[in-house]
Structures are given as structure tokens and as C-alpha cells.
Amino acid sequence: MTDPSLAALSDTLFSIAVALYSVAVVAFCAELAFGGKKAPAVSRELVGAGGGSTTAASLPPVDEEPVKARRVGAVAMGLTLLGAVVHAGVLVTRGVATDRLPWGNMYEFGTAVVLVAVVVYVVLALRTPALRHIGVFVLAPVVLSMVGIGLFLYASAGPLVAALRSSWLAVHVSTAILGFGIFFVSGIASVMYLVRSRYEAKIAAGERPLSRIVHRLPSAAALDRTAHRTAVFGFPIWTFAVIAGAIWAESAWGRFWGWDPKETWAFIAWVVYAAYLHARTTAGWRGRPSAWVNVVGLGVMVFNLLYVNMVSTGLHSYGGVS
Amino acid sequence: MTTTVERPAAAAPGPPPAPSPLRRVGTTLLRWWRQLTAMRTALILLFLLALAAIPGSLLPQRSLSQSQVTGYFREHETLAPVLDAFYLFDVFSSPWFAAIYLLLFISLIGCVVPRAIEHGRAVLAQPPPAPRHLHRLPDSATLDSELDAAATLDVVEEELRVRRFRVVRRDGRHGPELSAEKGFLKETGNVVFHLALLALLLGLAGGKLWGYEGSILVTEGDRFCNTFQQYDTSRSGALVDASDMTPLCVTLEDFKAEYEENLTAASFTADIGYGLAGAASRNATIGVNSPLRVDGDRVYVTGHGFSPVFTVTFPGGQSFTDVSAPFLPSDTTTMASQGALKLPDVPGSDEQLALEGFFAPTGSTQGGVLTSIDPRPLDPQVALFVYSGYLGLDSGLPQSVYSVDQTQIDRGSLTEVGRANLAIGESTTLADGTVVTFSGLKEFAAMQLSHDPGQVYVLGAAVAVLVGLLGMLLLRRERVFARVGPGPGDAGTVLSVGSLTRGSAETAPRFTALTDDVSAALRRRATAKENPSS
Ligand code: HEM
Known about the structure:
The structure holds two protein chains of two kinds.
Chain A: H1 4-34, H2 67-98, H3 106-127, H4 135-152, H5 167-204, H6 212-216, H7 220-252, H8 261-279, H9 288-310
Helix pairs in contact in A: 1-2, 1-4, 2-3, 3-4, 3-5, 5-7, 5-9, 7-8, 8-9
Chain B: H1 21-36, H2 39-58, H3 66-75, H4 79-85, H5 95-124, E1 139-145, H6 149-162, E2 166-172, E3 175-182, H7 184-210, E4 212-219, E5 223-225, E6 233-236, E7 248-259, E8 265-276, E9 282-287, E10 292-294, E11 297-313, E12 319-324, E13 328-331, E14 336-343, E15 352-360, E16 363-366, E17 369-372, E18 381-389, H8 406-410, E19 414-423, E20 427-429, E21 435-451, H9 455-474, E22 477-486, E23 493-502, H10 508-530
Antiparallel strand pairs in B: 1-23, 2-3, 3-22, 4-6, 4-21, 5-7, 7-8, 8-9, 10-11, 11-12, 11-21, 13-14, 14-15, 15-18, 16-17, 18-19, 20-21, 22-23
Helix pairs in contact in B: 2-5, 5-7, 6-10, 7-9
The complex binds protoporphyrin IX containing FE.
Protoporphyrin IX containing FE sits between chains B (3, 37, 39, 42, 46, 104, 107-108, 111, 190, 194, 197, 472-473) and A (274, 277-278, 281).
């Protein structure tokens, strides 16, 4: 039933995707290194403005980008795109090889989540060129995740266990993957925001921090807005994934909600992201505190994937990792 | 954007008269109420809820697995009772977990009800007057117009109405002005979302109170009816009335497990007959992911296993023919199982008899030890211990039907009288002449009947949560204000436009599109006026 040569091709593509992303990381680093030489003069902008009210035009003027940096940046983007295409190939070949949706175990789930994260980043970077500069901070965790997934979560191509043979696999797991991938980028944007807003605060205080790399990052306000907007996009998807999971559980396990560890952590993540959206509009929580909430949210998502699948016992034990 | 308004501290003019005790209690309560319904409190409660759920996933829970809790008690003899005192093995039904979500939902009610009322008013009311300084709005622009004031505002109004704004014109203190608004659905979404959360909780609570479930192992050919007496384990809500339970009976006719080449389980299906007690039976096939649903009740297959069948012939010639008991799988990949068959009434003897053993659907014996190598029953074998003596069934202490009570063995009341590895058809003879034959094999299914009257409401509420969420997050609420005044040197008209948007989207391009359209329309109109013939 499983086609071994296609399955082997899928594994080869995985390595190629990791290699392409790694070269992209180097190129993104080079872009930052060739970029802004001058000490920055950042416009004083509201740090962590409530979102929506400030406009793209208020990005701090990043000094004219040297041609070399721009070229290297374009190469990095090209490598990332190529990597994403090969990465998609990993999943497609695995799906064809096993004649099913390629997300039946943790290896496939993780690979798909990372692909979504890369695609979200590429879309953001194409729409708002300033966001290209966070490339290295997206692609480096991507490479680390892929290596971790390949080393520790690998499961060879095979058929699905009976419990997963349901059309809800397509609905529930696909949306969970989408939501997770989007939150991945959102969390990184919040981390970048935390770094950048401290830098801007130092400049505002008259200090001259000399981090050329942080200087090349988009403005804190733009990062905060990106984090918020992606989370706003991811949250309804995640909500839907949780609801679909509950509907599936009702027909598979006899109850729609039973506080199985996976369900519990999905709920915790949902509550944390709801708290993030609230924090963004609550006096005293805007800016850095709310960004921390978003980072915690990503931590919860990762914990839910790794700890709950590998350490605790529950009904969601389809990891395929032994 | 900001929706939290810090309430101004009540003005305190002069030394206040000593308030009556009743008033004081009233003010304190009011202050607490305001605290509770502040969004910051909701935020803290949200965090608390997330934190409170954590121990429920890290410690074993009674609701999920009683045996894991028992195991935890065995391993942590001193710690476990302490944890138990704090309900840490029943987190999700503990009073403190309930306290957090009840507080959260009271907070939610206090927050969303006034908001819903205010929203209702706002839908009926006219857009508010334009603020004094339009250029202080997040997006603003001034345009020159050759038309007079009224005609200029006419143009703005048309552009806004095309964009489906509700528009009012007023003669404000600072000149003729216009206010426009659209996007009430965003706020409606918010109200729907928060109210649906409340509905969801009510549905959950109702389901818990009026719902029940029971589980039972059913061997092929056997049947069970929906009563608590018959279930091996059951759970029922506080308001369940046993006499209201549907008198549904289910017979397991045939059970089939199918496997892929690499022994991954491909499907489990059970052919069942079902019907109300006394009524004609109907047939259905149920399996993983496809339960039987009959009004209000659902019947699931949650697991399966084998029941080895034995024939025991006593020295006196009497026999028990084809007696069996379910053996519980200890490893679901190979279906290696363990179980016991207890025979309390041995004919012609005071001694009771028990068979306890290990079952392998496809056995392989190495060094006398039987293991299972395949979940399919290709070569069924059992490794049996036979005990004789007193089983302790009437001792009043509960004991597992799946194993022989070890304390009876330790105490010497039960003694081993034989052991043997048997394939189907083989038998062993005990010292007293009793013959035990492994005569056959049946499959059993673990079945569960669930009744949850709240779940359709929960589903409806969950859909409303999602719809409300999409409305709240994706829609925009926009207000546009415009005011006209005389141009410099009284030549023409100056139009100021400003807009305020709630929602997370780039607002600048939309505003620019609006002002571009307005100024194009103004120019067109002005030219048309100069050349009325064309
Ligand atoms: C289970 C509890 C709650 C959850 C899961 C929840 C969830 C949410 C979410 C996801 C938003 C969207 C935020 C956005 O528009 O960016 C929101 C908005 C809002 N929530 Fe809640 N909420 C809860 C409880 C409450 C409570 C108790 C209050 C009042 C005290 C409240 C007041 C609000 C307000 C005022 C908004 C609008 C914020 C805005 O439009 O920007 N919520 N809520």
C-alpha cells in the first residue's frame, strides 16, 4: 500500500528543504550585515500603539538600503521560496506514497506546521517589504524545528490507524496546522517586538545602542501590529480547530470534551490567545506585557505538541514516535 | 481602540456625612461589582483559568483513568492524599476550578449585558456629532472645493452612502458638518461572541447534570440493556432519574477487526441488533468514528478483545461446556491479553476453581514463555494457571472480575493446582482428574452508551462563538466626519474629513481611496457647473 520509492523521495526532499532554508538563513544574516551602517535615527513613535490607528507610513525611516544588501535579501527570499516549494513536496510525496493526507503523525504534523509558518512569513514579507528583515529570526527557528522534527519525531511512511480514518482528520488537523503555523510567526514577531521596543526605548532615553541588526528590524509598532494581526487571523482558525476536534471526539470517543491532556492544553492555548487579544485593548497591558502573553501562547502550543504527545498518556497518542 | 474607561473616582465634596451601614454595604458591593466586571479582572481570571487547568493535565485524573490515580497513590503514599485534599485528581470538577469559571462568567455577564444594551441603543441612535478637531483623528485630510458648502457636503454624503454608511447632516457650532457610521455588525459580533460563551457554559452544565454514560464489555452473542445495574462502570449526573433512562437493549452479533499488512489497525466494526426492550430489534453496523445514534442516546465501540472459551469436565462426569470470560488486552498492538475465569460452584466439591492466564491471539513460545506476535487470531494460545480453594467472592470486598484475588493466594486460601500452555483444542488434566480444555474463541467489544442532552446546545453555542468571533475580528467599525468652512479669502470651500476605525486593518489606503473619490467627484461637479451645457 505504501510506495517505498516515493516515501524515500519525500525523505530526500526533507533534507533538501532543510539545506535550502539553512542557506537562506546565511543569506538573511549577510543582508543584515551589509545593511545600515550608520547609527540609527529612529523616529519617536508610539511604542505598541493600539494597532490599526497608526499607519504604515509611520515606519521609522530605515536608511537607504545598500544595493548589495538588497540583492542578498532578494537571494534569501528566493531561497526561502524555493525551500517552501520543496518543503511542500515533502508532504505531497508522502501523501501520494501512503495514499492519505500527510498528517497522521507528529513528524508529518510538525513538518506541515513549519511549512505554514514559512508561507505566512513569505506572504507577510511580500506584502510589507520591511518585514523581510525578520527573515533570519523566522528561518533560524524554522531550520532548528525541521532538524528537531527530522531527528526526534521521524516516523516512516505508513497507513493511518483506524481511529484517524475519518473525514474529520482533514478538517480538524488541517485547521490545527494552519492555526499553529500562523501563531508560530505571530510569536516570533512578538519576540522581535520585545527586542526592538527595548532598543527604541534606549534611543528615546538618549542612549546609542549599537546593534546594527536590531536597527535593521522593522519598527516596534510595525512588529507589534504584525504579531497582533497574525494572531487575529490565527485565533478564529484555532477556535474552529478546537470545535472540530470536539465534534470528532464526540463520534470517536463517546464525548465531545473530556479534559484529555491534549484537549486541556488546546483549551489553555485558546484561553492564552484570548487573553492576548484582550491584553492588547486593556489599559496597562498594551505593548510589552501583551507581547509576553503572545510568546507564552506559542510556548503553550509547542508544549502541547511535544510534551503532551511524548510524555503524557491520553487518547491523542498518535504520535508514531516510539 | 481603547474600550476600558477608567471610571473617575467619585467626587468627594467636603467631609461626607457618615453613611448609613446599609449604604456602606451597598457601596462596597457596587465597588466589588465594578472591580469584577472590569476587563482587567476578566484578563486575570482568564489567566487563572489557564493556570488552573494545568494540574489537570499533569496529574492523573479520576475522570480519565481511575487506575492511574490508584497507581499514583501507590507510588506516592504521603503526597497523594495531600494532593487529593486539594481536589488535584478531580481538577475539572473541583470547587476552585468552578469558582474561577463562575467568577469569569459573572464578570462576563456584568460586562456584556450593559454593552449589549448600549449597542442596541447605538444601532437606533444617529451617528454622534463631529468632534471639534477633525485633524486629530487617526486619518484626516483637508480638500479644497469650488462648490458651496452645502453642495460640497452633498458630494461627501453621496460617496459615503455608496459605501453604505449611515449619514446625518447637522449645523454644528463650527459650521455645517456630517457624521457617518457603519459596521455595527462588528459590535454585534462581540456581543454574540461573549453571550455565546455563556450559552456554551450553560449547555455544558446541563449536559453534566442530566447526562450519563455506562460502559460494558459484551462478548459476541451477548446483549445488554441500558440500566446502571448492567454496566461495568457508569457515571451519571446529579439530576439523572434512573427511571427515565431509555430502555434500549443492544446485542453484539459479530465483531470484526481488520489490519493492514504492517498490522496497523484498519477498522473495527460491530454488527449489532438494537431496540427498545420488548420491541422488535433493528440491525446496524457501528465502529470507530461511527456510533449508533438513536434519539438522545449514542452507542459506541470503544475497544475490543478476545474471550477464550473453555470446557471444564469434572471427575464426576459433570462439566461446564463453553464457558468464557473477556481477557483484557494489555498490549493493543499484539492483543496480548490477561484475564480470569472463576467457577464458584464446582459440582460435587466444596472447593472453588479459577483459571487465570495470559492469552495470545497468535502465540509464540520461547523457553516456555508465551508471547503474542500478531493481533489477529491466527494461532490462539493460552498460558493458564489453575487455582482451587476459596475465591473470596462473598467476602464482601470488591474484587476484579479480570484477575484472581492475590490476597486469597497469599493467605493460602487458594492454591495453584496446575498450569499449562494450550492451543485451541488442547486440554490439561489436573491432579484430581479435572480436565480443562481450551475449546474456542470469541471476540468481545467494549461498548459505551452515552446520553448528553446538553451537547446540541453546546454545538449551537460553539458555532455562535465562532460566528461572533469572525464578525468581531474581521469586520470594521468606521466613523467618518466632515465639516465645511470658507476657503482662504472666502474663495470656495474647505472640506475637512476625518475618520476613526475600530478593527485591525490598514486604514490609510481606505481613507485615501475615499478622499480621492471625493475630490474627483468635487472636481467633476465643479466642471459640470461651469459648463452646464456639456
Ligand atoms: C471567557 C472569557 C472571555 C473570552 C474568551 C473573551 C474573548 C474575547 C476576544 C477574543 C475578544 C476580541 C479582542 C479583539 O477584538 O481584538 C474580546 C473582546 C472583548 N472582550 Fe472578551 N472575552 C472574555 C471575557 C470577557 C469579559 C469577562 C469581558 C468584560 C469584562 C470582556 C470584554 C471584552 C471587550 C470589551 C472586548 C472588545 C475589545 C475590542 O473590541 O478590542 N470579555 N473578548
